[in-house]
Specification:
Oligomer: single chain
Number of helices: 6
Radius of gyration: 18 Å
Structural class: alpha+beta
Shape: globular
Helix content: 25-40%
Strand content: 5-15%
Length: 261
């Protein structure tokens, strides 16, 4: 499907910064991103979850005349660097867990024939994971979270896979997103994980120990992917990101074997 670009005639493209994977621009009230073989599947997924009542993700609008995917713009602040203070508010943690749960539940049953995913599927398949649920892919506005963006890495997998990465980025285990110290009082990472899982819903949330074990595996997988992406794109600085993921993985589960790479 192609969009009607006449409404955007004469509208300037604004380059959006902060990503490491895609070229992204804003045109009016839309976002334009490089499309790939996975784009039809992801757009069908977005349409599916929105039809199931989820409004916290962009609506898919097809492709523009340049072949880029077109999505609706979500207005608000994205939690990039420097990390905004709202990321550390326990209310944000609880809301992020609830928003991820809403997404997961809405994806149950989505299994189109011939689906193409950018990320590998993982067993056990319970839901469609976002695979990059983190503050830098969240939008905050008017004192609360309003949505997830950048969902093209989605693929089928277990709930714990998504929760582990969200916990890594929001609970203080991430080297480049540590929980701020005094003077503002902050919850310790295990306590933040408790709030996140409460927000998700304990009826289907994995136990904290499973989240941490999955977090370690998730980080090692991400380190390998990032090293390969650095090589294929000619961006050697991304190897530093991979090294950080391995350092973080090495201290997530005390007593784990040393990690080299």
């Amino acid at each position: 499907m192609r969009t009607d670009d006449t409404a955007d005639a004469g509208t300037a493209e604004i380059t959006l910064t902060g990503g490491n994977v895609n070229d992204v621009v804003r045109v009016g009230d839309t976002v334009r991103r490089t499309a790939g073989p996975w784009t039809p599947t992801v757009h069908a997924l977005l349409a599916w979850v929105r039809a199931h009542g989820v409004t916290s993700v962009p609506a898919p609008l097809g492709l523009d005349v340049q072949g880029r995917e077109v999505l609706t713009w979500l207005e608000g602040e994205v939690g990039g660097w420097p990390v905004p203070d709202w990321v550390w508010d326990p209310r944000t943690l609880r809301a992020a867990g609830a928003m991820l749960r809403e997404w997961h539940d809405a994806t149950v049953g989505f299994a189109p024939a011939g689906a193409v995913w950018r990320s590998p599927a993982r067993e056990p398949v319970e839901v469609v994971c976002l695979n990059d649920a983190a503050p830098y892919n969240m939008v905050h506005s008017d004192g609360g979270l309003v949505g997830f963006i950048d969902v093209d890495m989605a693929s089928p997998g277990p709930r714990a896979w998504d929760l582990a990465y969200l916990a890594y980025r929001m609970c203080g285990w991430c080297e480049d997103m540590p929980v701020p110290g005094p003077p503002a009082p902050r919850l310790a990472p295990p306590d933040r994980l408790t709030v996140l899982l409460d927000g998700y819903g304990r009826d289907l949330a994995p136990a904290p120990g499973e989240v941490l074990t999955t977090m370690r595996r998730r980080l090692l997988d991400l380190a390998g992917w990032t090293d390969e992406h650095a090589r294929t794109t000619g961006r050697p600085e991304l190897h530093d990101h991979a090294a950080m993921y391995r350092r973080d993985a090495g201290r997530v589960v005390p007593g784990s074997p040393p990690i080299r790479g």
